[in-house]
Amino acid sequence: MNKKIKKIIQKKNKSKIISLTAYSKNIAKILDKYVDIILVGDSLANVLYGHKNTHEISLENIIQHSLSVKKGINKSLFVVDMPKGTYKNMKSALKNAKIIMKKTRCDAVKLESNRRNFKIIEKLVKKKIPVMGHIGYTPQFKKKFKIEGQTRLEIDMLMKEAKLLEKAGAFSIVCECLSPKAAQIITKKISIPTIGIGSSLYCDGQILVTDDMLGLSGFYPKFVKKYANLNRTIEKAVKEYSRDVKLKKFPTKNNFLNGTKF
Ligand code: KIV
């Protein structure tokens, strides 16, 4: 087993697993110092490209961003999302997962569960492609956002799904928008780590979309803690630059390249 994946699994019940998303080298380089997992998420579609959901991202697109992210990673586990439609059946899943692994040199791929694709995950794992699962609110398959696991029946269904993912060989599971009770029960009952987003403190680790927590995306649901307001910081810098150019305060002699003659 990949050593980095082994380390992630060993963290369960010992210390929290810290994860964030990245779409570029510059961001990945900063995250790499402080996180255990960096995910190139298909949130790329809405967060960066402005699509209305995560569906419109192609394999080529996610690979392109992953190549950039890879350049910023030194130690973190590197996971790449499989875009919607790239793992519809066994054959295409295997072909596309192999392409992602080969081209991006990532450590693992992430697939959303639709409660029917366990065999596909099992096949990928058998072919030595590590898989991170994803349950709860799975934007590739569910149109309507809702907190999952609010009734006993829903919790039982989620539990079954998590168990089947574990059995299929997934090394961890992203739990998106689960009720605290569901997150607590599932985390306790499975042996692989749960990585929560909007799913309470009970998960083994946490993940957020970096652009959300930095105040850059404009999407701030309650489960996102805004650790910075980069929108404001960038606006301030751009405003200052614009004023400097207008007032001929930039460029100055300090900005001329060495050896420039007047
Ligand atoms: O696409 C993404 O960024 C994700 C995270 C929300 C876990 O799947």
Residues in β-strands, percent? 5-15%
Query: What is the helix content?
Result: 40-55%
**Fourth-level CATH superfamily:** Phosphoenolpyruvate-binding domains
How many separate domains make up the residues? Answer: 1
Distance between the amino and carboxyl termini = 62 Å
Would you list the SSEs in sequence order as H and E? Answer: HEHEHHEHEHEHEHEEHH
Number of strands: 8
User: How large, in whole angstroms, is the Cα Rg?
Assistant: 21 Å
CATH architecture: Alpha-Beta Barrel
| Major sheet description | 8 strands, parallel, barrel
Give the helix/strand layout.
Elements: H1 3-10, E1 17-21, H2 25-31, E2 37-40, H3 44-47, H4 59-72, E3 77-81, H5 90-104, E4 108-110, H6 118-126, E5 131-136, H7 152-168, E6 172-176, H8 180-189, E7 194-197, E8 205-208, H9 210-213, H10 230-246
Helix pairs in contact: 2-4, 4-5, 5-6, 6-7, 7-8
Bound molecules: 3-methyl-2-oxobutanoic acid.
3-methyl-2-oxobutanoic acid binds at residues 21, 41-43, 81, 174, 197, 207, 209.
Question: What distinguishing features does this structure have?
Answer:
single chain, TIM Barrel, 8-stranded parallel beta barrel, 10 helices, 40% helix, 14% strand, globular, binds 3-methyl-2-oxobutanoic acid
